[in-house]
Design a protein that fits this description.
mainly beta, Pectate Lyase C-like, 2 domains, 27-stranded mixed β-sheet, 47% strand, elongated
């Protein structure tokens, strides 16, 4: 038997070398490209190289293949963008790359992409039509970071996320957004972190979205710091929720964990509405938050209402109450 094994050894080694050769050839054929964009290149030529960059961002996106990088130089770009590829769109400087609308539409749409990265831009919306500025549709494992979204005119939401397992971080949003700064819309397992939302309808709107992480954000001067509408099992922790009309509002939402947040100078710190119906009655968990209006109290009561539907159009509302049984005596310091 030993002689037979030795006889076949050269054949096995040959097959192994052929397989490795094919694998190496396949890897070698995958060429990742960086495509350059610079609006100073007015006269051309335009081939996307560093020497002859495209003048418009969309031209760079259109020329890219999956996994390529589109690198945008400093400048002001007036165009609406559509990304349908798994690419990285990278700006040279967050404050010095301004993207504004060339037509009344969303400034940027990401449509059915995975692993796409958006990094280092300022989006300035000035369209008179009420629209979302950045809209993600059926996207997964994408990252939006180091982004400013500013609006002088009334818009819907700054960033709308639809999909799963996306990351929104280091984002600054300010302006007249009637719905929200960041809206999670029928989407699960996303992360929003280290971001600031100021002067919008809701800093973060969680609409029928579950198992999301909202952490280390600053929500200030909004109608609602965080608004949860029929969203379950979201984890809201280590956020600064300050100077809002309502800090957190939970509507027909269950099993959310609201823990280790600062509630400071909100007109109403927190409020909720429960629905007496199967699947809607389970409580949220409030734990170890700092409430600046409840210093020294052993528990923090949170007032809400319980809605009991009946056969008619309008049911009955009854006062209801929840508790933070372990409020923090001191505000948290978040880095």
């Amino acid at each position: 038997m030993g002689e037979h094994k030795i006889r076949y050894l050269p054949v096995l080694l040959t097959i192994l070398l052929i397989c490795l050769s094919f694998s190496y050839s396949s890897i070698a054929e995958i060429k990742l490209t960086t495509i350059y964009v610079d609006n100073d290149n007015i006269d051309g030529p335009w081939d996307g190289s560093k020497e002859y960059p495209f003048q418009y961002i969309q031209d760079g996106i259109d020329a890219a293949n999956d996994k390529d990088t589109v690198y945008v130089e400093i400048g002001e770009y007036t165009e609406n963008l559509l990304i349908t590829k798994d690419i990285s769109l990278i700006g040279a400087n967050r404050e010095e790359i301004i993207i504004s609308s060339s037509k009344p539409s969303e400034l940027l749409i990401l449509d059915t992409v995975n692993d796409t990265i958006l990094f280092n831009f300022t989006f300035s919306s000035d369209t008179e039509e009420m629209l979302d500025v950045i809209k993600m549709v059926n996207c997964s494992h994408c990252t939006i970071s180091n982004i400013d979204v500013i609006s002088q005119l009334l818009q819907k939401s700054a960033i709308v996320v639809n999909g799963s397992s996306n990351i929104i971080k280091n984002v600054f949003i300010q302006g007249r957004f009637i719905y929200s700064g960041i809206e999670l819309y029928y989407t699960d397992y996303n992360t929003i972190e280290n971001s600031t939302v100021d002067s919008t309808g809701a800093g973060v709107l969680i609409f029928r979205s579950h198992n999301n992480l909202i952490s280390l954000n600053k929500m200030t001067n909004n109608s609602n710091g965080i608004y949860i509408e029929e969203g379950n099992q979201n984890y809201i922790t280590h956020n600064s929720i300050n100077n809002n009309d309502r800090g957190v509002f939970s509507s027909y939402s269950t099993k959310n964990i609201i823990k280790n947040n600062n509630f400071i100078d909100n007109s109403i710190q927190a409020k909720f509405t429960k629905l007496l119906r199967r699947g809607f009655i389970a409580p949220n968990i409030w734990d170890n938050n700092y409430w600046d209006d409840s210093k020294g109290l052993p528990i923090k009561p949170i007032l809400g209402v319980l809605y009991i539907p009946n056969r008619h159009l309008i049911g009955f509302f009854f006062p209801w109450i929840a508790f933070d049984l372990n409020p923090s005596a001191d505000p948290f310091i978040f880095m």
